[in-house]
Design goal:
single chain; 298 residues; mainly alpha; three-stranded antiparallel sheet; 10 helices; 3 strands; 76% helix; elongated
């Protein structure tokens, strides 16, 4: 069943003004114009494409804020930030520790009552059986000491594990914070590098990247296509270069070549993008790059 012009336009409008997803909005506005060129929605869509270009930086900022704050209680805990997950994990771990300690305290208390009752009975036996009653009291005391010691050891062990996990998480958060800081510095350099290497002409753009080396000579690859897409690809390659990650750089070059073909293979694009994010995970958090890649895979 085909989607009406109104429904298609509404989807593009929501992506534009609610999700701040430039890539999706742009694709959907163009679909409205292509499928329903004479409709009022096509005219609206054309105007909105101009608005997208005009408000690009503002929309990208809002999109980044959505991604950063997307860690509320409605999300599964595994999808929240490390800080959110650590709060959840530690609170549950401490709760389990308290339950664990309370359980052993209760068991120790019950055993103490049992010992007192048994000791009272044993005293009666001592008065009648002498040595046999004394042995029974000693055995009860030893049993109580063992149970109490096990309870204490268990509680101390869990406390130590809690401290270790807490320290590990704090170290990881610190490491990630430093990684984010470094990524921002790299991104700034990459944006400058990409901007210097791009030539824009009308709606198209061109940038050159280093390809494979043949007989000691590095081959230059020219990537040309839609202005917004080429800017995303240039930033992708530049970020990989500035990060000095040869594996990610190689795959980003291959992805750029494939993306600008007349009919790019989405399977290849997806595999290359998956490889890049595995080799350089922080790249998945750069909105300008992700939006460009998303437009290729939709």
């Amino acid at each position: 069943m085909s989607i009406s012009a109104d429904e298609l336009y509404k989807g593009a409008y929501d992506a534009h003004y609610k999700e701040y997803d430039i890539a999706k909005a742009k694709i959907d506005y163009k679909k409205v114009i292509e499928k329903y060129p004479k409709s009022p929605e096509a005219r609206y869509a054309q105007n909105q494409l101009s608005n997208l270009a005009r408000d690009k930086e503002k929309l990208e900022y809002k999109r980044e804020q959505i991604i950063k704050t997307n860690t509320d209680e409605s999300l599964p805990i595994q999808q929240r930030s490390l800080k959110e997950f650590s709060k959840y994990y530690l609170s549950n771990l401490k709760s389990n520790l308290e339950d664990f300690g309370s359980f052993f305290s209760f068991i120790s208390f019950l055993f103490l009552i049992q010992v007192l009752i048994s000791a009272f009975v044993a005293l009666i036996i001592i008065s009648k059986a002498g040595f046999t009653g004394a042995i029974q009291i000693i055995l009860l005391a030893v049993n109580f000491a063992i149970v109490f010691k096990l309870a204490s050891l268990g509680e101390r062990f869990v406390k130590l594990q809690t401290q270790k996990v807490e320290n590990d998480i704090q170290s990881t958060i610190g490491f990630r914070s430093e990684s984010v800081k470094m990524a921002k510095e790299i991104l700034k350099k990459a944006e400058q590098r990409a901007e210097n290497n791009i030539t824009v002409s009308g709606g198209n753009a061109v940038f050159a990247i280093n390809g494979s080396t043949v007989s000691g000579v590095t081959q230059t690859i020219t990537v040309e296509g839609d202005s917004e897409l080429v800017k995303s690809l240039a930033l992708l390659v530049s970020f990989c270069e500035e990060s000095e990650n040869s594996e990610a750089l190689k795959m980003s070059t291959q992805l750029s070549e494939e993306a600008t073909k007349e009919t790019p293979n989405k399977g290849i694009l997806f595999d290359l993008w998956s490889g890049i994010t595995a080799a350089l995970p922080e790249i998945a958090g750069i909105v300008k790059i992700v939006q460009g890649i998303k437009s290729l895979l939709i």
